[in-house]
Model the fold of this input.
Amino acid sequence: APFHGNGRHLADRTVETLGLHYAMRWPREELETVRPLRRSPLYDRLAAKGAVFGSKMNWERANYFLPPGAVKPPYTLGTPGWLPQVLEEQRACREDVVVFDQTSFSKFVLKGRGALAVLQRLCANEIDVPVGTMVYTGMLNARGGFESDLTIVRVAPAEFFIITGSAQTTRDFAWIERAIGDDEHAVLVDVTGAYSVLSVMGPKAEALLDRLSPDELSRTAMPFATTRMIDVGYARVRAARMSYVGGPGYELYV
Done:
C-alpha cells in the first residue's frame, strides 16, 4: 500500500527483519514493528477482552483471546498454547453464535454504465444478476489463469460493491482499474476505510439479530447470497446472508 513507502515504516521494519535473518522462525510468528497502525473501531474493545492480535496489510486482527490473567503463550513447533481457546471458539461457531470483526476486508465500489461490462470480462462467474445479489467469483486473466477470488454485491443497476482479501487491496484494485477501457464509463474507488464488517455466524445468528433488528432475516425473506439494508439499533447497515464457516451466518457492512 502507499503507506509502506513511509520512511520511518521502512526503517523500523528493516531493522526487525534483518535482525531475524538468522534467528529461529516459528510457525505463525508475527512481526512486532510498526504496530498498531491500522485499527478497526472495535480494537480497544477487543483488546479489553484479551485479544492477541496479528497483522495483515498492517490491520490489527484478533487471532485469539486469552482468558483473564493468562499470558501470551510462547511460539512453538508443537501444539500451540492458544489451541484450547480456539477450539472453544470453533465449538461456539458450530453450536451457538459468534461475532467476527472482519473490518480489514478490502472494499471497492465500481460504478458507471460500463461497470457491468468490466466485471463480466474479468470474472469467471455471471455478474449480471438482480440488484441485491452477491456473487462469489474468481477473476481470471486472458489465459484463463486465476488472479484473485472476491465477492461482488450488485447494489444498483450500474453500481457494485466489491469485497476482497485484506492483503489483496493494492493488487486487486490495480487489476480491476487496468481493465477499464479508455472509452468505458466506469470508476473504481477504494472504500476500505469507510466500512466496518461484522460477521455474525452460527446456528443462532438469526435469533441474535432478531433481538437487535425489526427486519425479517429468515431464509425466506433473505435467501443465501442476497443482501439488503436493515436497521440494527440506531444504525442502518447492509446485511448479507453469506457464510464461510460451513453453517448459517450473516455479514454486516457498517
